[in-house]
Amino acid sequence: MQSYELRQKFLGFFEKHGHKIVPSSSLLPTDPSVLFTTAGMQQFKPYYTGEADAMADFGSLNTVSIQKSMRTSDIDEVGDDTHDTFFEMLGNFSFGGYWKKEAIEYAHEFITKIVGLEISYVTVFKGSDVVPKDKESKEIWKSLGISDVREEGMEDVFWGPTGSNGPCGPTTEIYCKNANGKDVEIWNIVFNEFFCDGSREQLLEGIAKFTPLGKKGIDTGMGLERLAMIAQKTSNIFDTDLFSPIMRTIPDVELRIKRIIADHFRSSVFLISDGVLPSNKDQGYILRRLLRRAMTYAKINGFPKEGPADLIHAIIDVYKAQYRELDSNRMKIIDMVYEEREKFGATVEKGLKELEKMQKIDAKNAFFLYQTFGVPFDIIKELRAKDLNQGAFEDELKKHQELSRTASAGMFKGGLADHDPKTIKLHTAHHLLLAVLGELFGKTVKQKGSNINQERLRIDFSFDRKLTDEEKKKIEARVNEKIQEGLLVVKREMPKEEAEKIGAEMEFGVKYGNTVLVYFIEDKKGNVFSKEFCGGPHVSNTSELGKFKIMKEEAVSAGVRRIKATLE
Ligand code: SER
User: Fold this and answer.
1) What is the distance between the alpha carbons of residues 354 and 513, in angstroms, rounded to a whole number?
2) What's this model's pTM, rounded to 2 decimal places?
3) Residue 261 C-alpha to ligand 1 middle, in angstroms?
4) Concatenated DSSP letters for 159-214?
5) Strand-pair partners of 212
6) 336 lies in which domain range?
7) Across the strands, what pairs with 220?
8) Tag placement on the chain: N or C end, fewer CB within 10 Å?
9) Ligand 1 atom at minimum distance from 40 CA
C-alpha cells in the first residue's frame, strides 16, 4: 500500500466513524513554551481542557488529522532504520465522545482489517503510586484476540504534557514486525484523564500536580513512515515510497550518512516552508543545525559543486500533493538553502582545518569552532570528540546568548546599551506594550524578539493571526493611558527563583543568571502593571514618554507577529 493510500484510508476510516477531518497545523505551534509541533494533539489542547468547544468548532466531538511533526530529541538516532526528525502523524481524537473500548477497537480494525497487518504485541500501563493499572485496556485487547499484552511503566506508556502543562494519561501502544522481523512501535493511543500543571519532566519527577479532566479524551498518534515501512514490507523507513525517490538523488556514500542527509534536508524543507529562517536562536538554530550538518557531510564526501537542488526538488515532489504550500514555496526554499550554503561554505573549510589541528576538544573550543566558523556540533562530535557533551556545549551557547543580551544587548541596535534618551523612552514603552498585549490576549502571548533604536521599537510576539484595526486602537489607547497615569519605573535586584515566582516576564529561550534585575512599572501604592527581567536603562516615570503610536503590524512567521511603534 502506497503512502498516499494509507493517508486516504486513515482519514476515510475515521470520517466514516463520525470524525471531522481537520488539516495539519503549522510546524510552529502557537504555544510559546514548545519550539515545534511534536504531536497531532497539540492543536487540540484547548478542547481537552474545556477551554474550547469541539461541537461548536467541528460539529463533532471527534476529529482526525495528518499532522506535520518535528522531534529533534532523537537526532542522534537518525541514520538507523526507524528514526527521523520530521514525520507525519496520523491521529484520531475525541474530546468526551468515546473512550477506551472504541479507541482500541478502531485501531485494531484499521491495522488488521483495513491495512491487513498483523499486530505483534501491545503494551498497557502497569500502574504507579498515583494512577492505577490499566486493567480495562488489557481486557479489551484480549477480547480482540491479542494475547501478547505487556505491562510497562510511567516512562514508556504515560503521555505527559507538551510544553509547560497540559492533558495527560496512560497509553497503550501497538507494535508490528518489519521485513527483518524486528518489532517496531507504530501507534500510541493516549487516554487523557488528567490535567497536569507541570511539564512531562516534572511529572516524571513526581513534582507536578494532576487533577481529573472534566471530560475524558482520546489522543492517538501513528507515524506514517513507520506504518509505510510495515505495509510496504521494507526493513527501514528509507526504503519506503516516502524516502526512496529522495535517497536516489544522493550520491553513494556510507548509508547512515545518506540517511542523515535525506532526513535533515527533508526537515529543513518543511521548516522553511512554514516560515523558519536559519538563525542562532530557537527554531532558526535547529534549522541551521540540520542544514549545516547535512551540508558538511556533503562537503566532506566531495558532493557535486552545484549543490542540493535535485534533492530539494525530489523532496517537494514526494510531498507536494499532500502539502501544496511546498510547491508554491519551491523557489523560496531553494534560495534560502543556497544562501545558507554560501554563508557557511566560505568558512566551514577553515573551521574543519582548525578542528584537525586542535589537540584537545572540549565544550569551550567546540563552541569557538561553531561560533567562528559555523562547524556544527554534531560534526565536531563525530569527527574528533565522540564523548563531547551536548549539554556543556549548549551551556556555552547560552552563556554567549546571555552575554549578547545583557546590557540590554540584543535589544539595541549595535549590540550594546544605547543611552540615547529617545531609545530609553522607547524601551520603557516596549515594556508597557508587552504588558498590554498580555492583558488583552492572555499570558500565553510571549515576547519572541525585540529591537529598539532612536526612531522606533519593534516587538515580535507569539500570536497566530493578524490584529484587527480595533485591537490596534485598543492597544494604543491602553499604553497611552498608562503613560498618562505617570507610573513609576523601579529597578529591583532579586534571586532568579523569586522573579520567576512573581511571574516576571522573561524572553523565551534566554538563559538568565542566578541574580536578575527586574523592572517594575507601578503606581505609588505599589500596584504593578508590568514586571520584566531586564538590564535597563529606563525612564523613571512613564509621564516622560509622550504619545505612543503603532506604525505597523505584520507577520514574521507562522504564529509570530511583529509590531513596530513609536513615540510622538
Ligand atoms: N500524543 C501521543 C504521541 O504523540 C499520541 O498522539 O505519541
Assistant:
1) 32
2) 0.71
3) 26
4) E--STTSEEEEEEEEEEEE-TTS-EEEEEEEEEEEEEESS-HHHHHHT-S-EEEEE
5) 194
6) 243-407
7) 189
8) C
9) 6
Residue 220 CA to ligand 1 centre (angstroms): 5
295 and 226 assigned to the same domain = no
Angle (CA) 16-20-23 rounded to 5° is 125
Considering only residues 396 and 330, tell me which one the structure prediction assigns the higher pLDDT: 330
What the block records as the C-alpha cell of 415 is 549590540
In total, the chain counts a number of residues equal to 568
State yes or no: pLDDT of 406 exceeds 60. Answer: no
Residue pair 295/341 in contact (Cβ under 8 Å)? The answer is yes
Q: Report the amino acid identity of residue 174.
A: I
pLDDT tens sequence across 106-124: 999 999 999 999 999 999 9
Question: Is 322 found in the same domain as 185?
Answer: no
d(CA 9, CA 1): 10
Q: Which one has a higher pLDDT value, 344 or 192?
A: 192
Query: Is the pLDDT assigned to residue 507 strictly greater than 80?
Result: no
Q: Which amino acid is it at 550?
A: I
**Looking at the predicted structure, is the pLDDT value of residue 274 above 70?**
yes
Question: What three-state secondary structure class fits 538?
Answer: coil
Residues 215 and 287 in one domain: no
- The whole-number pLDDT of residue 413 equals 30
Task: Give the up-direction half-sphere exposure of residue 385: CA atoms within 13 A in the CB hemisphere.
Answer: 23
Q: How far apart are CA 438 and CA 444, in angstroms?
A: 7
Q: How many domains does the chain have?
A: 3
Contact 141, 105 (CB under 8 A): no
**Neighbour tally for 352: CB within 10 Å:** 19
**Phi and psi torsions of 423, nearest 5°:** -65, -40
Does residue 21 lie within any of the structural domains? Answer: yes
CATH number at residue 486: 3.30.980.10
Picking from 189, 215, 238, the residue at the C-terminal end of a domain is: 238
Contact by Cβ (8 Å): 33, 448: no
Report the nearest atom of ligand 1 relative to the CA of 162. 1
Q: How far is CA 32 from the centre of its chain?
A: 9
Give the C-alpha separation, 203 to 196, whole Å.
Answer: 8
Distance CA 238, CA 229 (A): 8
C-alpha 261 chain-centroid distance: 21
In this structure, which residue's CA is closest to atom 4 in ligand 1? 39
Closest residue by Cα to residue 24 from 190, 213, 273:
273
Q: State how far the Cα of 439 lies from the Cα of 458, in Å rounded to an integer.
A: 19
Question: 223 C-alpha vs ligand 1 centroid, how far in Å?
Answer: 10
Could you tell me the CATH number of the domain that includes residue 168? Answer: 3.30.930.10
With the most atoms of ligand 1 within 8 angstroms of its CB, the residue from 186, 188, 191, 200 to mutate is 188
CA of 444 to the centre of ligand 1 (A): 23
Element (H, E) at 173: strand 166-177
What are 166's strand-pairing partners?
196
- Distance, in Å, from the CA atom of 291 to the CA atom of 374, rounded to the nearest integer, reads 11
